[in-house]
Amino acid sequence: MSLLWVVLAGFALALPAPWIERRTGRAAGWLLALLPAALTLYYASQIPAVSAGQARLFSMPWVPLLGINLSFHLDGLGLLFALIISGIGTLIVIYGGGYMEDHPQRGRFFAFILMFMASMLGVVTADNMVTLFIFWELTSISSYLLIGFDHGRLEARKAALQALLVTGGGGLGLLAAAILLPMAAGSAELSTIIAGGVHLGDHPLYGLILALVLLAAFTKSAQWPFHFWLPGAMQAPTPVSAYLHSATMVKAGIYLLARLSPVLGGTPSWQLLLGGFGAATMLAGAFLALQRTDTKQILAYSTVSVLGTLTFLLGLGGEKATAAMVVYLTAHSCYKGALFLVAGNLDHGTGTRDVARLGLLWRAMPLTAAAAALAGLSMAGVPPLIGYIGKELLLEAALSSPWRLAATVAVVLAAAATVAIAMIIALGPFWRRAPLAPPHAHPHEAGPSLWLGPALLGAAGLALGLAPGLADRLLLGPATAAVRGEWGDMHLGLWHGMNLALGLSVLALVGGLVIYLAIGALRGAGERLAPLMRVGPARWYDWAIEGLFAVARAQTSVLQNGSLPSYIRRVLLVSISLAAWTMLAHDSNLGFWFDLSGIEAHEATVAVIIMLGWMLTLRAKTALTAVIGLGVVGYAVALIFMLFGAPDLAITQFSVETLVVILFVLVVYRLPRPTIYTTHLARLRDLAIAGAMGATVTMMILAVLSEPMESRLAPYFLSTALTEGHGRNVVNVILVDFRAFDTLGEIAVLGIAAFGVYILHRLRYDPEIVADRPGRRVDHVAAGRPGRVDGENQEGRP
């Protein structure tokens, strides 16, 4: 099967998904999950080939003139991400079918989530930089639709817009990088660049490309100071939150950094920026997570911390750090997806997500409690789960880094906070006695569609931990090799010996227990820092939006002030400035001269008539006199067309001028007497602008006419008008045949304008009826019928 069809399959199913949901009812989630399940099996079938070093490639020309291909490449890194996306996507679709069983827009949810999945699969398998950018932006659009799914709530709409603006702004950086990177590397195909061993560390464009790539990755993966949008995205339904955090959008930035690591990594700038911002995000996310009591908010900020950890590891570089990044990313996908689904089950079964009000739920929700325990142990880094291996590698990478002491302290603190977070989420609600009862007096276990996902993800973390060698050989090792650009000698195992990393791991567990027991005091300290938090990055975003609106208001007050004459003046002034500057800057031929020897007497007479006509128009005291002056100018122009061999244009001009004069004469008596509203100085200003515009156009025409004209179009039209257009009138053939679509577009514009005028003419507004019913919204105003408001029938009666 082609990689193209594998990626597009999700988009194809997203279209009929609402219809399928309406026809299949409760079984919709299970039925629609067959597609991501099939994609998971397809990607799993590629494991033997990819683990042997054989990458899958698909490429077809897309925009050949620009060298843009629609190409996809599946290597170890792409395969790992694709399996995570499609595998967890299968469980999310099943879970969403049960969790949103009574939601009236469940079909829309399925459509959006499938589109989201397909967009992410496109990101992690795209080979061409432009293809990557297209799917990158599709993830932003689909996540906007998902975060704002409950669009009736203001909070959901604001969170969706915030996520779109932040990640979309970073997407502009990726667009610029997609243009500059091929210029520097010599190819837009990532597989070609990496296979060729290209490294841009010494290239003059390296700094700019790195800044643009980091902007895109940091905004997408919520690195400080862009981290604030991710907790806000918790306004989305729980299945969306679980998918967003465990497998999809927030991992896209990490994927981009990992994919471009062989090309951009290893430099001091790369290490400093990724290491610094990653460490700051890791610690800030962990601290903020401990301040929350809502399970989704706790998990959201802990995701921010983990994303910082992954960025930090990519900044460190080297075999140990890269392996730690791959293992930690895999472990996080398993346990974070499970815990988010557990949070949804808690909300579904008890009516609250506040951990302070939940406790002793293991009897009422045993399956959810078991899944939470497995996921929590992996998150805390307890053997034999995959999270333990990831934590060990993380500590070893910190110990071998250039900043050994600072990196180790930061990692241990973050690991201890992660242990405490795992205990808060996975231990407290099920085993701790809650001081307050949840809203539901009788908490209950969810159905199979709700507990299946967290159970399988928790079990996956255990299976990967019990068989690390197999996971390393088939999946994690090839992914590590793809990030590093070469195969390494790392071999994963549960036991790494009695070493410093093991001691630090135990220290993190003990520290997490201490933090968990002292969580009240820690939250109290956080409350004292609340005033400082209110001027953090989230507030910077608000200031930026407020500033944007202020600039828009100022600009609008100047450029969109509602005065048509001022609009015309600005357009003319800009046109004059640009045209004059262009002619002067490019040394246009301004030395044209006037040869009046060839002008005939009748031609001069027509020119004089035109000048007299516009002078009459300008000096007219009545509207009828102005109409007559304009008519004189129009007829004189028609005479020029006739004298210089354009009889068809002359006939058209005569017809138009006659019709215009007649129409003006018919309505002129209904118009009020012309009144001059402008001052004398304003009229002089307008005269100067109009004269300058006329002079500029005249200079442009004369400059063009002074150059030799060698047109290849005129002979072509003359020779083909009859043979191919079957018409002797060349102008008509050009309009109807050679420029048929252009003419059709003009006709369509005129038709739309006429339709709009007709609608405006037919509308009627009766203020008396509305005045009789104060406080009512006008619902319908129709031609020939009285105005109608809410609560009235067509006759105006209640």
Q: What is the element layout, followed by pairings?
A:
Layout: H1 3-14, H2 17-24, H3 28-32, H4 34-45, H5 47-51, E1 56-63, E2 68-74, H6 76-99, H7 106-125, H8 129-147, H9 154-185, H10 190-195, H11 206-220, H12 229-232, H13 238-246, H14 249-264, H15 268-290, H16 295-316, H17 318-350, H18 366-380, H19 386-399, H20 404-431, H21 448-466, H22 468-484, H23 500-517, H24 519-528, H25 530-533, H26 537-559, H27 564-585, H28 601-619, H29 623-643, H30 647-668, H31 680-705, H32 713-720, H33 730-738, H34 740-762, H35 767-772, E3 778-780, E4 788-789
Antiparallel strand pairs: 1-2, 3-4
Helix pairs in contact: 1-7, 2-7, 4-6, 6-7, 6-13, 6-17, 6-21, 6-22, 7-8, 8-9, 9-11, 11-14, 13-17, 14-16, 15-16, 15-20, 16-17, 16-20, 17-18, 17-19, 17-21, 17-22, 18-20, 18-21, 19-20, 19-21, 19-23, 20-23, 27-31, 28-29, 29-30, 33-34
